[in-house]
Amino acid sequence: MRSPVAPVAGAARPDLPARYLDVPGAARYLGCGERMVRRLVHERRIAFVKVGRHVRLDTVDLDSFLAAGRVEPTRAEVA
């Protein structure tokens, strides 16, 4: 028997695991527009899953994408 999955805002279907988001949900998760998410998918810069003709993005992959773009601050050198 499958365990119930708690619905998450932006989850495409309540019966899919909550970590898979549709494009609008992924855009909210990343804090950007849907167009940006669609461009990332089109350019294959972010991992995604095709469910039929629908695109789903795993929150683990979104977190990895964010981590890869992280820039650490530098300390200003005192002269």
Task: Describe this entry's structure for a reader.
The chain is an alpha+beta fold and 79 residues long. It has a domain at 20-68. It has helices at residues 23-30, 34-42, 59-68, and strands spanning 20-21, 49-51, 54-58.
Order of helices and strands: EHHEEH
Report the C-alpha radius of gyration, rounded: 16 Å
Distance between the termini: 67 Å
β-sheet strand percentage? 5-15%
- Main β sheet profile: 3 strands, antiparallel
- Quaternary organisation: single chain
The strand count comes to 3
Q: What do the pLDDT scores average to? A: 84
Number of discrete helical segments: 3
Helix content: 25-40%
Low-confidence stretches: 1-7
Apparent shape:
elongated
Structural class: alpha+beta
What strand line-up does the widest sheet have? Answer: 1-3-2
Provide a short characterization of the protein structure.
By secondary structure, this protein is α+β, with helices and mostly antiparallel strands.
How are the secondary structure elements laid out?
Elements: E1 20-21, H1 23-30, H2 34-42, E2 49-51, E3 54-58, H3 59-68
Antiparallel strand pairs: 1-3, 2-3
List keywords for this structure.
79 residues, 3-stranded antiparallel β-sheet, 3 strands, alpha+beta, 3 helices
